[in-house]
């Protein structure tokens, strides 16, 4: 009904072209999902590579239900398929012929055809009623045709079971009856053993002598009445006695017929118990100890019964072939056991497949030498061990995963599950919140280690002699001076023994730094603890402490804030470390005084100093001259980025550079400041890269690029003078051409932006 309404009102859309299906347009309907498509659209779809089935041999797939079809539709037919190119009639369903459908209904057991007019979609269920019998066939009921439900009555089934002897006792049911569950007793062929089996099973078969073999010796009396059957429990009657006179025609070894022995005077046999005459020759029967290459025979005279064991000797090798032994043949069974059990005591020294352990197998015959031990090495997580068999190369990554959130100590930074085993806690830029031994300000960030870094806060303390105040960190090394009482060692021994230094690390301080050291009385000396440090060592440690304090404020520096470092240096050092003003500083001061006199605003630019172009540092120019192509490409990319963000709709636009070295990253950071672009470095070495972001209204393109400035400087630079070689004395060994001094490398220990 929905299909008819949509097709009539022209609201149905083709899934291929997404256009409305008109009432006069040729269409095709899928017989599996009943979706309607334009005929031309479904033709194009069937020929396209996207419509082919996965196996490539099943034809093309329907766009809606993915049902595979072999033939491509070529003609426009009505829904029932009887009329080609049906004409549209206002009183009929679009694309139908207006006649009875007549298609077979989807129900398998419905014999009636569809009796409504040609229509889209599936045919409705059959309205007719038919009479059906129940599953056991004892009762019948009237139901709708095509009804898939089964009819069951309350009577007992009563059908004969598979055994053919008993009847089904279940209530009326569907399907076949269950096999008979009764058990019957069976006897073996020889009649000595019994067993129970299900009635009607294949094991119930009997040939009249029994139903199965118990695999024991039969033991029944033979037809002679004197001997028993020596065969394994078997069906059918036992064979004739093998010693009857009418069965035996030759001597025991089989070389001479009995008729010939009778001519020589042997007594004729009457019954099976009479002995079989012997020919007197060597038996010669092959023994079971031999092989295809060497056959051993019986050396006894012609006899009845089994042959004696072999008396020959042979060399038997161990499994690996390292040792051999001389063995006496005692039949094939003994030889087989000896060949399997004989092993030498040599241990294999070859490496196993893992390359770590030796084989050490006794009398080894293995060729691959696979290691059966467990690897047991620690995985990359450091917590679990490898449970795979011992192998070569690196172990696989730990497969265990945690589904709990992994946080830093303060809980600000979080890694959400699943978290691979061994993942370190996330980095946190917040200040450390762990309890500390001192109450000084904390300068380091949150960390995952249990112990915090040493306190770097400087305090002022008196020396042990109360002579001067020194700046000391809580983590500075100290020295303990010990001696023995002079009454025990004597003054000379005490002076010669000097002092012992404890807990000074790599520092070798002088113990005579105290001015009053000589005034101490040796007799009253027991234990003295003096805190001191050498000038050089203390200077290095002081700068390390200052570097740590500044490094903890890198985030503030990146955001443009300032860091107070006056507490880290003294006033004297500040005066010594102050930079001298150059010509540029003097020009700035002169312009400032002139602007104040003329009452000119600092934001104005009357002399067009700022619009004349950016100021590039000498270090940046020097680096650019080394790789002018790299700088040109960077500036070109930055100009394109700034122009794109200023002309486009977005307020920000970013660009990611490939991984590069530290010098190239510094050039990008400096150029980004000139262009007004944000720059941030990501990842660790050697894959550390820079990402720049241009902001609309903030990022600008300077009038003079760095490459153009370098080109102008090269053009204005005078030509280099000619080199003149100076005549020198041969004995001096020095040439007149002096070598240029090697420049000291500039090391930036605090690359803040990087």
UniProtKB/TrEMBL annotation:
It is found in: Nucleus. GO terms for cellular component: nucleus. The chain crosses the membrane at residues 328-344, 526-547. GO terms for molecular function: DNA-binding transcription factor activity, RNA polymerase II-specific; RNA polymerase II transcription regulatory region sequence-specific DNA binding; transferase activity; zinc ion binding. InterPro entries: NFX1_fam, R3H_dom, R3H_dom_sf, R3H_NF-X1, Zinc_finger_PHD-type_CS, Znf_NFX1, Znf_PHD-finger, Znf_RING. Keywords: DNA-binding, Membrane, Metal-binding, Nucleus, Phosphoprotein, Repeat, Repressor, Transcription, Transcription regulation, Transferase, Transmembrane, Transmembrane helix, Ubl conjugation pathway, Zinc, Zinc-finger. Residues 11-68 form the PHD-type domain. Signal peptide: none annotated. SUPFAM superfamilies: R3H domain, RING/U-box. Residues 628-696 form the R3H domain. Pfam families: R3H (PF01424), zf-NF-X1 (PF01422). Residues 14-66 form the RING-type domain. GO terms for biological process: negative regulation of transcription by RNA polymerase II. It comes from the Eukaryota. Residues 713-747 are annotated as: Disordered. Belongs to the NFX1 family. This is Transcriptional repressor NF-X1. The lineage of its organism: Eukaryota, Metazoa, Chordata, Craniata, Vertebrata.
